[in-house]
Specification:
alpha+beta; 434 Repressor (Amino-terminal Domain); GIY-YIG_endonuc; GIY-YIG_endonuc_sf; GIY-YIG domain-containing protein
């Protein structure tokens, strides 16, 4: 029988799986079951229900099959980067199992225990820490910088246009992230609601780009949104949905090409490159600052950013080593991070030495999309 303490860990894991399902387009249980058969990992509708209900911990094979299925639903097909995401969910399943077992087992009881005093003795830190105390405000455990960032993010998503529509509430739309220099670093699209996808990148930090160490959230200083309001009432299936997705792809491709042209490097961090499409007229957009003046001074300084870029590049390269076989897109992301780090270091040196700031360029190497780096 599952104890209350054990159940809380399993329920939390199930809640995260339910969030993943929503972020991947909320496929039905039957659709998930059907998709698992593609990988010869068939799980029943009942197994999906049990997994998401969080009533008991299921086998790891079911978790792996579920994650593969919802990722396949979101992306339309299996992708190489899915393997790393599945492995991370397995690690989370294992941690949940360990936590639930620890909560269930608890510390060993001594044969005879002395009843605790009615009130903590003076200077008795152990007794004082376990005495009744008011609940902890978990928001206070978050650093001021992160609280400020999340507050700016929520304000951006909740702000309204001239017609009173919230910028983050559009079902279909595209988004872009910019660094402290105003340099574009990442472009994405969604048909599950703009705010859901953006939050998954920047607050939950559980998208492929963040999990694979391609995108460092602490380098994001600005956000731009392009909502496609004309597709708000489109169902998930049918011809209208197909046309809406085609339009979404074309908008994303147009934004991507425009930002490539604006980038000083001619490169972005996207591992998955938007499919090439004929340029289209872009909808109205709005750009939001996500950091305050203090954060910009502190975390936007060259020393901090160089350290972060070096750390991110090392983790990204380590991810490639652990995966073994990686996509051209991931190799390109390693290249982009390397160029960005070099430019930051060169700019810092130029500032310190009083010389002209150099521009880092890659001579003789085509980095535009669709051409593999060899």
């Amino acid at each position: 029988m599952t104890t209350p303490s054990e159940a809380s860990a399993i329920e939390e894991f199930a809640r995260k799986l339910r969030e993943l399902r929503i972020d991947c387009g909320e496929p039905s249980y039957a659709t998930i079951s059907r998709l698992t058969r593609t990988d010869q990992e068939s799980i029943s509708v009942g197994s999906v229900h049990t997994l998401l209900a969080g009533q008991r911990q299921t086998k790891p094979e079911i978790v792996r099959a579920f994650v593969r299925a919802v990722l396949r639903h979101r992306d339309g097909a299996a992708r190489p980067e899915h393997a790393g995401i599945v492995d991370e969910w397995f690690a989370l399943w294992r941690a949940t199992r360990l936590e639930s077992q620890t909560r269930t087992t608890g510390p060993a009881a001594t044969p005879r225990e002395t009843p605790p005093p009615a009130s903590p003795q003076a200077g008795d830190v152990s007794s004082a820490s376990t005495a009744h105390r008011p609940g902890i405000d978990r928001d206070q455990l978050v650093t001021p910088r992160v609280r400020s960032f999340l507050a700016h993010l929520e304000a951006a998503l909740a702000s309204t246009d001239e017609q009173g529509r919230r910028w983050g509430s559009a079902k279909y739309g595209c988004y872009a992230f910019y660094d402290y220099d105003g340099e574009p670093i990442y472009v994405g699209q969604t048909n599950e609601r703009v705010q859901t996808r953006v939050r998954r990148h920047l607050s939950n930090q559980r998208t492929d780009a963040v999990a694979m160490r391609v995108l460092d959230v602490q380098e994001v200083a600005e956000l731009e949104l392009w909502p496609l309001w004309e597709h708000e009432d489109v169902d998930r299936t049918g011809e209208a949905a197909h046309q809406a997705r085609q339009h979404l792809d074309a908008v994303e491709s147009t934004i991507y090409e425009r930002l490539l042209a604006e980038s000083r490097f001619g490169m972005l961090l996207n591992e998955r490159v938007p499919a090439t499409a004929e340029p289209v007229e872009l909808p109205a957009s709005r750009r939001f600052a996500l950091v305050d003046d203090y954060t910009r001074r502190e975390w936007g300084s060259a020393a901090v950013r160089i350290a972060r870029r070096a750390s991110t590049l090392a983790r990204l390269a380590d991810t490639a080593v652990e995966r073994g076989v990686v996509s051209d897109g991931l190799r390109r992301a390693i290249l982009v991070q390397g160029v960005r780090l070099t430019q930051l270091a060169a700019s810092a040196y130029a500032t310190a030495s009083g010389t002209k700031e150099p521009v880092v360029q890659l001579q003789g190497l085509e980095v535009r999309e669709g051409i593999p780096l060899t």
